[in-house]
């Protein structure tokens, strides 16, 4: 199997509004891909039983196609035309469709993709495929309505984002610019990567440490002992590390407001080093020695409660307490934790999963997709556009069949 192509370019988990938008974008692509939709429900439905005589939160323009392609055959306007209600809709003087009618619009769209959807099929797991080297495809385990399980191979996967935000580990590193060539090392992997970080280089590496726990602080202390490193930045919410203020400076230190992607879960937010003055002393002592030895070229910077993304923007390597990934919160992807770095948010409705360098072939992608907007009760306005991006990415990959794209994104990561 190692040399053969996976059966599908893309397997989509579910056939809700977001995936219907994907199906539409694919059909309208210059070169459409081989896509399969696996939906656990026996037939299409959209919140059946919850459709009161209320209206959608947004205008009909934010349907599954218009924003990406106003000339699409799947626009709400075209649906109204097909139902012979276009003029009446216009005369009703309301831009927001009735929810009941929107459900019919979604069903009308869904019916046009019958041949690509397997209803009554639940995806129960996703595992890497492709033998010893980089993952070359995904093995998607599917349980049909009779309880029989089979495996489908897909080059890429789009799955619904986990819906209950409360169950998620905090989003981490999503704002770090993966394209900028930053490499991210988990605090748990620091020891095994230490010699690589410490090694002599022509241009000294700038390193950022992100975290508030004991481990992160100890790593900071250790990094400061390395004379070959450049600037070292600590981004933390640990007030025990707050830099000393100039005497007489009346300004209050900024209250810790780490943006949510860096924030620790509430249970681990407490400082764990407040009672280790020797460690703090060592850190500031070593930081000062560094400044003196490098004649001011390199410094230690401690950033409390400011935008961590900016603070880390010049780092060549980021050692982070949380290299968490959203996939962990979805049972389907438990087996992939070791491959995943994090998720990169694109607009309101799309996240692209970022994999460790060399772990996954550049043609093998994964997206989390949701038509939910922030509040969870209305469709995301950019869904048509974002699903178009998925299809575009697939088309690029398919065009380069057998050859890796020049994936700078992938190459930049550890
Ligand atoms: C009761 C209720 C009312 C709502 N009313 C509105 C409204 O009036 N207007 C509005 O704009 N939004 C409303 N929403 C928000 C709604 O969630 C979104 O509009 C939209 O349905 C989200 O689309 P989606 O494709 O991201 O997810 P979903 O609609 O949840 O679609 C995901 C699909 O994937 C399938 N699936 C999931 N896991 C698997 C698996 N492992 N294997 C196979 N299939 C799987 C699910 O069965 C589902 O069909 C409402 C939500 C709820 C809960």
From TrEMBL:
Catalyzed chemical reaction(s): L-ornithine + NADH + O2 = N(5)-hydroxy-L-ornithine + NAD(+) + H2O; L-ornithine + NADPH + O2 = N(5)-hydroxy-L-ornithine + NADP(+) + H2O
Domain of life: Eukaryota
GO terms of molecular function: oxidoreductase activity
Entry's transmembrane regions: none
Keywords: FAD, Flavoprotein, NADP, Oxidoreductase
InterPro entries referenced in this protein's UniProt entry, alphabetically: FAD/NAD-bd_sf (IPR036188), Lys/Orn_oxygenase (IPR025700)
Assigned EC number: 1.14.13.196
Names of required cofactors: FAD
Pathways involved: Siderophore biosynthesis
GO annotation terms (biological process): intracellular iron ion homeostasis
Keyword Oxidoreductase on entry: yes
Family, as annotated: Belongs to the lysine N(6)-hydroxylase/L-ornithine N(5)-oxygenase family.
PANTHER family, alphabetized: L-ORNITHINE N(5)-MONOOXYGENASE, MONOOXYGENASE
Name of protein: L-ornithine N(5)-monooxygenase [NAD(P)H]
Organism: Lentithecium fluviatile CBS 122367
